[in-house]
Design brief:
Length: 1327
């Protein structure tokens, strides 16, 4: 482990992989069935032929992993007609403790000399020809034969006696740090040296020995130069306080995908979606994977990370966990040919075609437009510097090709111009131009014509002229290369590499600047524990490390969708864990840099606590200067190679064949290697002793610091992260596949338990705190985030172990299959008879048809009495009951709220009928939200999974859904979500047309239950209002469809007071959302009509969500509590019995509820209309205040209302303003009197149908909104009208009591209280 002994060398291992000469050709069994593939395109098993040294203590050699990653698709074969360009790619290996080692590989082709391999390939080709499908065209005069296959298979052929066979081989370097550029240069020089052994000054063993043992790992913050076979190589290692080492070209990545697609991919990575990269070039896969994760600094990807997925591990695409994987594109392959389990939560990146498919509803990144603008500016600035260099370095001579698949040149090395004896412009070991021309019939005809006309005498003249010009060009090119090498030795790193490093640094600084702005105040919300480190690690899963609700409440509204999802990811949680651990141990270097940048931003902002405005990155120039200074002034030069094998001559090497090298020489480390490093070190500064001391001190301090950090990280990750971070194990053995799939099942079940528990705790709020959970609250954005993550989890569960993919959503595909089966085999329910003859597996006894009856579930039903069995569900919904009398009792039949269908198919049909959802993923999420809101999610999924035959057809045996015990636990966790109420469907689809059902329940007493007037209703919710809707006369039920109203708040009911008996006593009204099933009760208990109660012909009722209903077999009956008072004015008689203390308590509680409402986050607030006008709301409490001591109950026998008192006050105030009272009024009194009279007058003229109590309700609400009510109370108390209509012990005549009311109402003046339009009835608030 790295914590035991640290790496001190630049290279840990030099590895050679390929085909062993003495072994037989073996197919790669883990790559699946390849019998239908051409033998030259099949993958074959490769082996590690040699590695040097045998082992190093800080990095154990993993032969299986390195062998798969050096040749990810195994051995590949080509003939002399195929392009055999050497290709470079890098890779990484992740150990169990989270540490990594890095590899760089160069793959090239060598001619096969083994007779057994040639014979095997010849046999395989003949077998493939024999197995190729042949069809005969029988319609033609002669049966013609047609070979089925692709265009390449038609032309591909192999004849061992005629063709040359080439096999892939790989040389690679395993390093402790990702020095990609330098390793690519070293491997290229070694490969070119092996192609031209006659030009070698020393043996290859000497160069490899120098690379392994004589080149040290450069210290942090220093640059180093060392030497390969033909030229120097420079590396630059960042300092501890800077950005981590990154040696890929971000410029290439941006050119491949573009700024907009990079930002989209970046968001998917941050939100931990499944990311699948797709390219025909392995290096492109590594480039994009490493580049996009490096841009996430200081956050680190914590989940499955396989940038290059070997062909033998392709089944890991089925993994139901977030991952970043790279998949190699085969010849003539496309995305449509891939077998992907689900694409609902996947980001698919087709690198070669510059396409990206992202998940739906991906939120915008904070400062996204500013980020894109800065990136575009940097890209344009470096385009002239880097673009021209890349174009010149990637030019290749054209070669004859027979591969019609897609080819890439982004990581292709320039071929050797003279290797293998070929002429100019040919690839190594390719046929000479002269031989090719002589075999061409067209060339022979042209040649004969040219000879006759005297243009040339022979083909040799053309070849020689071309060779002479190419030799001249090569001579000039070699002179330029030698001069540039000499210049580089003096000046340090080449300018092209410096510009690439500077571009990388600029882009990474811009992304870091965005994170600094987003989390500038994150330290204020970190929850530091009171335990020690050991206790905190043991309890980590049960404690919170970040106050998410408080952090989100402090962020801009536009940033909430992204931030609320991002703070739930593991990469964010890990950084917060590191922040907490820093209170016991030294902070991680990445965290220190992040905190330092935040401090610098705050200093620039002059200490502003909140930084909303985005400031462009101002650290780019400083970073560029640092890179250029370090790159041009090399700190350390390693010793050059020297001959170690005097008994071996380079002339012994075979041209075009890379030798296996000598184990005796390369596995023996020199005893004085460490001292040799220091002796051969040459420093470029004048004061060599001072520079040597500085180097040793920097190296020692950096090594010690990195060692301490590594030990702490190892300690932390071993105890904590190993349990949280899913790893992809070694799949070289098929026996481990079952164990890995079982781990996936356990991970999914654990994640389901965690998510459901979190949703419950967040939703329960204070109740969860009382049960012992940490204090937490939930906002609208947080709830949507949690539910969206639950939808993603269900998609991953349904994607695990799929037999075949059908569409983007695995859940919806399963539902469609289930629906198809149900519609083909639809059972008949006892009360719902489907037309037509019964189909297979029906519950109807067909034999009973001859007797004129059905037998359904054991019950015999006569065909002559089918009308009594039931009706279609749609007819049931439209069937309503009127004021029909029942027998001699004289009572009407009350409407019945029948239960909604609870079947999965019914809810699924509702979703399919929604016109504003068009994708499978959208329909799946809508169904999950609807089922969650209806508390039917667990029941629906249980019903879906009960069809075991369908499960066996759709899923493999190891799939999560086929593990019975885990499936039952999964459904149990989902069942726990029924304990809380969700409105995730109602609040998410505001444009959906929703059916509603209104049921009116009048009093059943004689003379109170019917009305001759025309009744109307108007329903309002948080998202809209219906307007006035007329109810059919003599009916108590009204069905309507309207754009989603959201959570219902108020209902206004009234009539036009026409007919012989218009007076009507309404007990309550029920309204049900026919999509979600939410039922709202609007309590009334008041008369509608003139000359009764307060004379109101309309009432404003406040909604109350019904949590409990009585479900019976036939219907849902909603009962109201028995009445104990007169129906004429129940509220007034009840309020008259309230005592002084009770009234004060109720008023204080109502005001306190309003204050709490406004101190909650806006997304967390409920219905303020209920707090104002609902039961024990502010209006009710103020009515108690005005009723207390009111003389109407004793003197006027319930004929006087509070509004009568208000109208008398209005008359008094108007007389006072007119000067008829003989009193001189101050300006304060005049203003108060005028505002009071104006409001009362507007209320009286607004609507004649509103009764006196309704007008008083509007008066209180508007008075509170305009902050006038507490100022009117002393004006009202000082009038003679109050003395006439109130007793001495009333609130208005007792100074102490009136001061109490004034003081408590004054606390509401700091809030802007919104009022619904349905409450105001058109009153203009601009007083």
């Amino acid at each position: 482990m790295a914590s035991v002994e640290r790496a001190t060398r630049f290279v840990d291992y030099f590895v050679i992989s390929g085909l062993e000469d003495s072994s037989e050709l073996e197919p790669d069994k883990l790559s699946g069935d390849t019998q239908q593939i051409h033998p030259l395109e099949r993958p074959y098993k490769s082996k590690v032929l040699a590695h040097f040294p045998d082992n190093v203590p800080w990095n154990a050699f993993d032969e299986n992993a390195i062998g798969m990653l050096c040749l990810p698709k195994g051995l590949s074969f080509k003939t002399q007609w195929d392009s055999r360009q050497p290709k470079f790619h890098s890779f990484l290996i992740t150990r169990e403790d989270g540490s990594r080692s890095y590899g760089s590989a160069l793959v090239f082709y060598e001619e096969v000399t083994s007779k057994s391999v040639l014979e095997t390939m010849q046999t395989l080709f003949k077998m493939h020809q024999a197995n190729t499908a042949v069809t005969f065209c029988l319609d033609s005069p002669e049966p013609g034969r047609k070979i089925m296959g692709s265009h390449r298979e038609k032309q591909a052929s192999f004849d061992a006696s005629r063709d040359k066979l080439f096999v892939s081989k790989c040389i690679s370097l395993i390093t402790p740090l990702p020095f990609v550029r330098s390793c690519q240069q070293l491997l290229q020089q070694l490969y070119e040296a092996a192609q031209k052994p006659s030009q070698l000054a020393m043996t290859l063993e000497s160069y490899v020995f120098n690379l392994i043992y004589d080149v040290p790992l450069p210290p942090c913050g220093c640059s180093m130069k060392f030497f390969g076979c033909s030229g120097p190589v420079c590396v630059l290692r960042p300092s501890v306080g800077g950005l981590p080492l990154f040696d890929f070209s971000l410029y290439d990545m941006f050119k491949l995908l573009g700024v907009s697609k990079i930002v989209q991919l970046f968001k998917c990575v941050l939100l931990e979606h499944q990311v699948l990269l797709y390219s025909s070039d392995y290096q492109r896969l590594m480039l994009v994977a490493e580049g996009i994760t490096a841009l996430a600094f200081p956050f680190q990807w914590q989940l499955v990370y396989v940038p290059i997925l070997p062909a033998s591990m392709s089944h890991f695409l089925d993994a139901p966990v977030p991952y970043i994987m790279g998949l190699h594109r085969g010849p003539n392959c496309s995305k449509s040919q891939l077998v992907l389990p689900s694409e609902a939560n996947m980001c698919f990146v087709d690198i070669d075609n510059k396409k990206i498919d992202i998940p739906e509803d991906l939120p915008n990144f904070p400062y996204e437009s500013d980020l894109a603008m800065e990136l575009t500016q940097v890209l344009n600035r470096y385009q002239n510097l880097i673009g021209a260099e890349n174009m010149s370095s990637r030019s290749h001579p054209t070669t004859p090709r027979r591969d019609f698949g897609s080819r890439t040149t982004s990581s292709t090395l320039r071929p050797d111009d003279g290797g293998g004896g070929g002429s100019a412009g040919s690839w190594p070991n390719s046929p000479k131009r002269k031989d090719v021309l002589q075999q061409s019939e067209a060339w022979q005809k042209i040649s004969s014509l040219a000879k006759k006309t005297g243009v040339w005498d022979s083909i040799e003249e053309i070849v020689l002229e071309d060779s002479a010009s190419s030799i001249s060009n090569k001579t000039k090119e070699k002179e330029c290369i030698s001069s540039s090498i000499a210049l580089e030795q003096e000046s340090g790193m080449p300018s092209s590499e410096i510009n690439s490093l500077k571009f990388n640094s600029s882009v990474r600084e811009i992304f870091l600047n965005c994170f600094v702005h987003m989390f500038a105040s994150y330290e204020n919300f970190v929850i530091n524990p009171s335990q020690d480190l050991e206790q905190w690690l043991s309890n980590r899963e049960t404690v919170h490390n970040f106050d998410k609700a408080a952090f989100l409440s402090d962020q801009p509204e536009a940033h909430l969708p992204f931030l609320s999802a991002f703070i739930e990811t593991q990469m964010f949680t890990t950084l917060m864990d590191s922040k907490i651990v820093s209170q016991w141990e030294e902070a991680d270097p990445s965290l220190r840099l992040f905190d330092a940048r935040i401090g610098k931003l705050k200093d620039t902002a002059s200490g502003e606590p909140r930084i909303i405005t985005y400031n462009p990155c101002n650290t780019i120039e400083e970073a560029e200067v640092y890179i250029e200074r370090r790159a041009k002034n090399v700190n350390f030069i390693a010793s050059k190679a020297h001959e170690i094998a005097s008994h071996i001559s380079p002339s012994q090497y075979v041209s075009g064949i890379f030798p296996l090298l000598s184990k005796e020489l390369l596995n023996s480390e020199p005893a004085n290697s460490k001292s040799k490093f220091r002796e051969n070190a040459k420093w470029r500064r004048k004061d060599r002793q001072l520079q040597h001391k500085e180097h040793l001190q920097a190296n020692s301090e950096a090594d010690q610091q990195e060692s301490e950090v590594a030990e702490r990280q190892a300690k932390l990750w071993v105890q904590y992260m190993r349990l949280r971070k899913p790893q992809v194990p070694d799949m070289s053995q098929t026996s481990s596949i079952a164990q890995t799939n079982w781990k996936f099942v356990e991970t999914l079940l654990k994640e389901c338990k965690t998510k459901t528990k979190k949703m419950l705790v967040e939703k329960m709020g204070q109740e969860a705190v009382e049960l012992g959970h940490n204090e937490a609250s939930i906002t609208g954005v947080e709830e949507n985030t949690l539910i969206a993550s639950l939808c993603d989890l269900l998609e991953r569960i349904w994607s695990h172990g799929l037999q075949a993919r059908k569409g983007k959503s695995a859940v919806w595909s399963h539902l469609l299959s289930f629906q198809e089966i149900q519609e083909e085999n639809k059972p008949v329910e006892p009360k719902l008879l489907t037309p037509g003859l019964p189909k297979r597996n029906s519950l109807i006894d067909i034999k009973s048809l001859v007797d004129g009856s059905f037998t359904i579930l054991g019950r015999s039903i006569s065909l002559s009495n089918l009308s009594t069995v039931g009706v279609d569900s749609e007819k049931e919904q439209s069937h309503v009951k009127g004021h029909r009398r029942r027998g001699s009792q004289g009572r009407i039949e009350l409407p019945v709220l029948r239960p909604m269908p609870k079947s999965l198919m019914a809810d699924m049909r509702k979703i399919q009928q929604m016109s504003d959802i068009h994708t499978e993923v959208g329909k799946t999420r809508a169904l999950i939200r609807l089922a969650l809101e209806r508390k039917m999610l667990s029941a629906h999924l249980k019903h879906l999974l009960a069809d075991t035959e369908l499960l066996r057809h759709l899923y493999k045996r190891y799939a999560f859904l086929r593990c019975e015990d885990e499936r039952e636990q999964f459904l149990y966790h989902l069942l726990s979500l029924n304990a809380v109420d969700f409105f995730c469907f109602t609040n998410t689809f505001p444009n959906t047309v929703v059916p509603y059902r209104v049921l009116i329940y009048p009093s059943t007493k004689l003379g109170c239950s019917t009305t001759s007037a025309n009744v109307w209703v108007s329903v309002a919710g948080q998202l809209g209002e219906t307007g006035v809707m007329e109810v059919t006369k003599s009916l108590l039920e009204h069905n309507f469809e309207n754009k989603n109203l959201g959570v219902l708040t108020t209902l206004r009911i009234g009539h036009d007071n026409t007919g012989m008996m218009p007076k009507w006593l309404v007990e309550y009204v029920l309204v049900r959302n026919e999509l979600s099933g939410h039922t709202y009760r609007f309590s009334c208990g008041r008369w509608l009509g003139r000359g009764v109660d307060d004379g109101s012909t309309e009432r404003l009722l406040v909604a109350e969500l019904m949590h409990h209903t009585i479900d019976t077999e036939d219907e849902v009956v909603v009962t109201s509590p028995p009445r104990t008072c007169s129906p004429k004015s129940p509220r007034k008689n009840q309020d008259a019995n309230a005592g002084l203390t009770d009234i004060q308590h109720n008023l204080g509680q109502a005001v306190n509820n309003l204050v709490k409402h406004f101190y909650k986050p806006e997304k967390e607030r409920g219905n303020i209309t209920f707090l104002l006008c609902g039961d024990k709301g502010l209006v009710h409490c103020m009515e108690q205040v005005f009723q207390f001591g009111f003389r109407s109950s004793r003197l006027f026998r319930n004929k006087m209302f509070i509004w009568d008192y208000m109208e008398r006050l209005k008359t008094f105030f108007e007389n006072a303003l007119a000067g008829n009272t003989g009193r001189t009024l101050s300006d304060v009194y005049k203003a108060g009197y005028w505002l009071f009279c104006d409001l009362v007058g507007k209320i009286n003229t607004a609507s004649d149908s509103v009764g006196k109590d309704g007008k008083f309700q509007v008066f209180i609400c508007v008075g509170i909104r305009k902050r006038c009510l507490h100022r009117w109370l002393p004006l009202m108390a000082s009038t003679a009208v109050t003395g006439q209509m109130y007793e001495e012990n009333s609130f208005l005549r007792n100074p102490t009591h009136i001061n109490f009311v004034m003081h408590i109402l004054e606390s509401l003046t700091e809030f802007d209280i919104p009022l619904e339009a349905s409450l105001l009835r058109g009153i203009d608030l601009d007083l």
